[in-house]
Amino acid sequence: MSPADPVSPTPRIALGVEYLGTQYCGWQFQHHALSVQQVLEQALAKVADQPIRVHCAGRTDAGVHATGQVVHFEPPVERPERAWTLGVNANLPDDVAVRWARPVEADFHARFSAMARHYRYLILRRPVRSALWHRRALWTHRSLAVAPMQEAAAALVGRHDFTSYRALACQAKSPVRTLHYLDLIERGDLLELRVGADGFLHHMVRNLVGVLLAIGRRDRPASWAAELLAQKDRARGGVTAPAHGLYLVRVDYPDAFGLPSDLEDLSLEARPAADLKPDDRGPGRNVPGAGGAGSNGPDNGRPGDRGPGETRPGDGGPDENGLAVI
């Protein structure tokens, strides 16, 4: 270690983490299967030479990906900051990586200090399945009418009771959330749904996508999204979209914590399709929110809001809705 390398005697270290969730049972440690949390903690333990427990911004479900997950831990030993990136990455599998590491004060918490979270959901629209997008996007062979989907999405922005858009097993104490934006962006064959909120209920993003897909297929009118919202009844809602099209792309924190704020959203950065431009960026950071924010997985950022883990859907061709795992 050179004298110029800063060490980390600080109370806590924050990490930015990205991963492909395909091979994992989700973020959270499970006894029956491999999780992202498990492989990250194992890599950190090798660098620290003793066990480390991490806390994340959002516990994503099985098959969900992340480009902007944030975690924190209390370092038991002093290490240069680069040891928490380069050293940890050397001990991680190829589908998990630490992007950055920063020392933070003891009052920082990856989950409860968050102001907002941002997700992307990718939908590939073309007649045949893709090899390059296998389990990285939802494939539909049916055409989608984007205009009514956009109309429906606009009606959902704002502070609402999202009971109709949460899982029946959701344990959140309140179904009220503030949706800051819900946009649809077309890039060739790819349709990207972008959403940001102060918190998300269990399966909320995937249920939003399921409703918008039904509207895009013209199985339902654009008004259906708002009608479901008003009914406050999940039993009347649409199909939950598969997990593999979903990405946690950013978590916003107060500027005082000094975490990276100039990183591009990576949901578009490494796209396999040659006709997609990598210069598309998400909205600015620090979107104001109300209270702690959560994930679209079993944890919405509020104490006790968890749901059971889910199994990954099987391979196969399109179902009766024209959707398939690819």
Could you characterize what this model shows?
With 326 residues, this protein is α+β, with helices and mostly antiparallel strands. Helices cover 14% and strands 23% of the residues. It contains five helices and eleven strands. Strand 2 (55-56) and strand 3 (65-73) form a beta hairpin. Helix 3 (146-154) packs across helix 4. It is globular.
Separation, N- and C-terminal Cα atoms: 45 Å
Poorly predicted sequence stretches spanning 5 or more consecutive residues: 266-317
H and E order: EHEEHEEEHEEEHHEE
Classify the beta-strand content into a percent band: 15-25%
Indicate the overall shape: globular
Helix content: 10-25%
Question: Biggest β-sheet: count, sense, barrel?
Answer: 11 strands, mixed
* Helix-strand makeup class: alpha+beta
> Mean pLDDT, as a whole number?
83
> Total number of β-strand segments?
11
Cα Rg: 19 Å
Count of DSSP helices? 5
Based on the model shown, name its key terms.
single chain; 326 residues; 11-stranded mixed sheet; 11 strands; 23% strand
Layout of strands and helices, then pairs:
Elements: E1 12-19, H1 36-48, E2 55-56, E3 65-73, H2 86-89, E4 96-104, E5 116-125, E6 138-140, H3 146-154, E7 158-161, E8 176-187, E9 190-197, H4 204-216, H5 224-231, E10 246-252, E11 323-325
Parallel strand pairs: 3-10, 5-6
Antiparallel strand pairs: 1-3, 1-4, 2-3, 5-9, 5-10, 6-11, 7-8, 8-9
Provide a quick synopsis of the model.
This protein has 326 residues and is an alpha+beta fold.
